[in-house]
Design goal:
Elements (H helix, E strand, L loop, with lengths): L1 H23 L2 E6 L4 E6 L4 H34 L7 H4 L19 H5 L16 H12 L3 E6 H6 L9 E5 H11 L3 H8 L10 E6 L34 E3 L8 E2 L3
Antiparallel strand pairs: 1-2, 3-4, 3-5, 4-6, 5-7
Amino acid sequence: MNFLKFIKHIFLFLLTFLLGAQTTYAKTELVLPQSQIYFSIEKTQSFQSLEKEVQPNIGFLFRKFSEEKSKFGTAQLNTAVKPYNFSEEHLHYLAEGVDELLSAFKSGFSKESILAIPKGSRPNNPSNYLYESYINSHLSKFEYDDIVRVTNQSSINTYGGTLGGTDAFVTTKTDFELMWLETGGDLLAIESKLGFQPNSLGEDVVFAVIKREDVGTFKMPNGNEIGVNSNWLPGGVTSGGMPEAKLDLTTVTEFTPFNP
C-alpha cells in the first residue's frame, strides 16, 4: 500500500508540473535588447505565421552582421596600408585616365598651355614641361625597332636626295604596320593618323623603312620643327594617336620602301 501511495504522489507531482509548464510556457518571448528586435511564439501559432514574423527580423540580423563585418574588413584593410612618400616625379604615375599624357606634364603645365604658345616660341627642351621619365620611356620605344619616315619624293628631292632635315619626324615600324592594318592602306586615313593635313602627301608619297643602326639619336619633338602644323600635340604622340620622335636624317639616303 505504501508503494502505491508513493506512485500516486509521483503521478500527481508530474501532472502538476506538466500543467504548470503548459501555463508558464504557453507564450515564449525572445527579446534582443541591443538591436531592439522582439517577436513572440504562441502555443497555438502555426509554423507559417511564425515564419512570417521571424523572417524579417532574421534578415535584419544578417544585414547588421554584414554591415559590421564590412566595417571591420575595411578597418583591417586601411590599417594594412603602409604610408609611402613619393617624389614629385613618381606621383605622375598615379594620375587617373587612359591617356598617359595626362600624367606626363609637370605641375603648372598641360597640353593646352603648350599649344597656346606660338610655333617658334615653344620651349626647345620638352623636359621643361614633361617629366624626364616620361620622355625616356617614350623614346625607348624607338631604340629596338626599325623606323618609318613618311614623306614624298618631291621632299626628298628638296633635301638633296636625303630623307629629311635635322628634325625629321619618324614612327616605329611596328606601330606603322599596325596602323596600316587598321587603315587598310587608305592614304587619307594614314594622313589623319600621322597628323598630316588632308591630301598633303600626294601621289608621290614614300613610306621609307630605315634600319635602326643607320640613324642616330632620337629626340622628343618640341613643336618648333619645320614640319609642325596645327595638328601637332606635345608629348610625342600625333593627333591620331601614333608615337613619333624626331632625328637628323640629313645624311640618310638608304631605305627600303614599305611592303605591306
